[in-house]
């Protein structure tokens, strides 16, 4: 049996992840391997930690990636923090809230969920009321719900958690690097990000950060073999050691910190990729990058609406990096997506659960968030809809987006 050379098609990826990777990142991944304790490599590790602190807007000591997809970071955070029987409140407003619930349950938490309709978010006062009434140990929630294109305001919830001495853990996988995330100002104790979305790095690492409140919790759960405490002693203190080796943040921090204790073998090429992705982001500037995402989001939305389609979800809490579109009555959603992929080489996404077949999701994230991509997806979507018998306002979508791009006073923040 012979296998051909890898020969993947060139795609325009307009999904909420994974998205197109900056060619600079791909080039960085071909850098030769060095050993994981080589000073040349530990220097790179330190640089990545430094750049992550800037991205997260935090003074936290700990900011490093976990090797694995974004959920590996979520699982590491929750496995390390949740003691069996801890009460965790999870406000759920889309699919990834359910993921948080599931992981919390697997680590022995007593989960209390509250739900908001998909396409909306919570009024912070409602969540604060619930925290006041139920006094959980931890609140875990999603900042940007990729499944519905909505973004939850966090600051007031974070402040309330801090006042009531509740740990606040946030999944910012879909927002990090695309829209503002302020770990310290919003009183977030532990935050998890992803690489494959607005950072435009391949999937395979989950950068995270946590403060000394969480570090203390982790320290109190050090495993027996490390000579800190016996299991019996931990039990007397109402805790247990962390049940995972791979996801034990105490062990990971001993590797990322000055002790450099051996744990896993670091994913060298992925770290090169993350370093380059972060370097690109800091060269662009955080605020400039956020402005770029809003700039292209506006052009995309103008095009969608000019075509005669309706956007899904509350506009005042819309996530700038994901635009959800209602599928017109009677149209087979996946057939339109397939046509975009096979005829135009453009990928857009469906959604999950109750929204599958009801909405399309277009991502404008990181390196994929570019003028030519927005114009291409609008033109292709219009053509595919016409082929599916939908009455659209022909020719208007691309023109509306061009109007946004060609307004004399408005410049692409990157090109300006
Ligand atoms: C908000 C959010 N959280 C978590 C995840 C899980 O990430 P992964 O599939 O990389 O494990 C995703 C993936 O799309 C996501 O959008």
Q: What do you see in this structure?
A:
There is one protein chain. With 416 residues, the protein is of the alpha/beta class. It has two domains: 22-281, Aspartate Aminotransferase, domain 2 (3-Layer(aba) Sandwich), CATH 3.40.640.10; 286-406, Alpha-Beta Complex (Aspartate Aminotransferase, domain 1). The protein contains 14 helices and 13 strands. The chain has helices at 23-28, 39-56, 70-81, 95-106, 124-134, 155-163, 212-219, 231-236, 249-256, 268-284, 286-307, 333-344, 371-387, 396-406, and strands spanning 12-13, 62-67, 87-92, 110-115, 138-142, 144-145, 150-151, 167-171, 190-192, 205-210, 322-326, 346-347, 359-363. Strands 2-10-9-8-5-3-4 form a seven-stranded mixed sheet, sandwiched between helices. A two-stranded parallel ribbon has the order 1-12. Strand 6 and strand 7 form a beta hairpin. The termini are far apart. The model has no long low-confidence stretch (mean pLDDT 95). The site of pyridoxal-5'-phosphate has 13 residues, from helix 3 and helix 4.
Give the SSE map.
Layout lengths: L11 E2 L9 H6 L10 H18 L5 E6 L2 H12 L5 E6 L2 H12 L3 E6 L8 H11 L3 E5 L1 E2 L4 E2 L3 H9 L3 E5 L18 E3 L12 E6 L1 H8 L11 H6 L12 H8 L11 H17 L1 H22 L14 E5 L6 H12 L1 E2 L11 E5 L7 H17 L8 H11 L10
Parallel strand pairs: 1-12, 3-4, 3-5, 5-8, 8-9
Antiparallel strand pairs: 2-10, 6-7, 9-10, 11-13
Helix pairs in contact: 2-10, 5-6, 11-13, 11-14, 12-13, 13-14
The structure holds pyridoxal-5'-phosphate.
Pyridoxal-5'-phosphate binds next to helix 3 and helix 4.
